[in-house]
Design goal:
The structure is a single chain. This protein is α+β, with helices and mostly antiparallel strands and 528 residues long. The chain has 16 helices and 15 strands. The protein has helices at 19-22, 42-45, 97-114, 128-135, 137-156, 175-185, 223-237, 296-300, 351-354, 361-395, 402-424, 428-434, 437-446, 448-467, 474-490, 497-520, and strands at 32-34, 78-84, 88-95, 169-171, 188-195, 201-202, 212-217, 240-243, 254-264, 271-273, 279-285, 308-314, 328-342, 396-397, 522-527. The strands form four sheets. Strands 8, 9, 10, 11, 12 and 13 form a six-stranded antiparallel sheet that branches. Strands 1-4-5-3-2 form a five-stranded mixed sheet. 23% of the residues are buried. Keywords: Chaperone, Coiled coil, Isomerase, Rotamase.
Length: 528
Amino acid sequence: MELSVSSTSPALLKLNHHFLSKNYLPIKIPSLHFANDKKLPSFYRQTKRPSFLRKFASPASSSIAVGPSNDRLPADIKVTETQEPNSRVRLSVEVPPAVCEDCYKRVMSEFTKQAKVPGFRPGKDVPESILLSYVGKQNVQKATVESILKRTLPHAMSSVTGRALRDSVQIATKFTDMEKTYLSLNSLRYDVVVDVAPEVIWIPENGYRDLKIVVEIDSEIDAQRASEQELRQRHKSLGSMRIITDRGLQIGDVAVLDVSATKIDKDESNVQNIPAAESKGFHFDTELCDRVIPGFLDSIIGIQRGETKSFPLVFPESWKQENLRGVHAQFTVECKELFYRDLPELDDSFADKLLPGCTTLQQVKESLLQKFLEVEQTAREQATDNAILDQLCKMVEIDIPQSLFEEQGRQLYGAKLLQIQANMKLNEQQLASLSSPKAVNEFLENQKENITRVIKQNLAVGDIFKRENLQFSTEDLVKEVENSIAEFKRHKQEYNEERVEEQVQEVLEGAKVLEWLREHSEIQYISR
């Protein structure tokens, strides 16, 4: 089963474009991961993972709690900051012997308080050599390195305060290598890598303030045309189908067809079946010919029951299935049955059957038109938003952090998984298969372009919200949060109230930005 995401849905604004202000971590509590160390000291293993970690975070990764940054050190540490691709910063940290020695003394003092050394009362001083022998020199060494990290990390990361992204901090140096350095030099060196908030670069600068947007509107959403088609369909439901025995297919008839198609090269040497174009017992309403490949209806007009026709057609470049665009195909159609509709003449007596509650035919027409005017307006607004978002994406350059890409991708995957679960009621085995790291990673790889586009759109929107000092009312926020929580409760789903509020704020920010852009953009609508 393959999952995919739409690249143009305005609902994507519900995802993390606000992270510039909310995904920062206080430097005193980052979540840290060690490279290539699966077995870590107890200090790390016992630390609980923060609640804000991603649902699909690797179970093999380990986190570490970090002490307060106001813990004064006996000497300064040296930190060299290096910019890396994907908005990542590498901090190379050198801890002098004075700091290491102070951490060693603290560790020994703590062991003295807690260790129950035979022959010594709890809490009393124990000679260093005896304490080392009792606790184990290697255990003391590990604990000292842990203490050094705990005390120096907040100071080392002070340069990225306010920029570090949530759950992106990783110690790049192996713990075993740090132990060796400390043992041989009585000092410590380690590297920390962290993703930081990427800069949104507009080309041109502030170009969003003068957008020129061309919005393509599908002819199917024309309210007048759609309401007339709906009335026609309702009229058809009042009639009956009669078998045609004395003539061929005409406009207005319904045919039951067996359809097959083959793909042919221009030299007709390579013939392949087209499964997507095959259908048995296909009920073809000739008044809905816009749902089939252009030229199909013209090619079968006049066909009679039991007759077979074969003809070539070319799939247009606008065909919904991309793999069929421009394909030359040979269609074979066998007519199994032909029907015509015996319809009553419409008058006011059919009003209530056409649309319950209506008493006249005119009232039916007006009600249907009003309904489709609302649909048309909604479709127009959505198409406008999509066009604006696509344009914003083309106007920004962003060096996207890998952690942000993965989190955004996992959120999209999780939302798609929930949708599938709601539609198909997956069993535990299917759900486990789709939730596996392999399935998630395949989704991230296959949807890389779409995920990147979503992130760029969301960051652009968030940047505009800040640049233009846009706001929304507290009342709107409270109301939408209450509505969202009520929905969770109605469906008996678990939720995090803080995260719900963040999601609602994202939606309100996105809506406010799109509203502002529609007002300040030059928008042209064309039909397609």
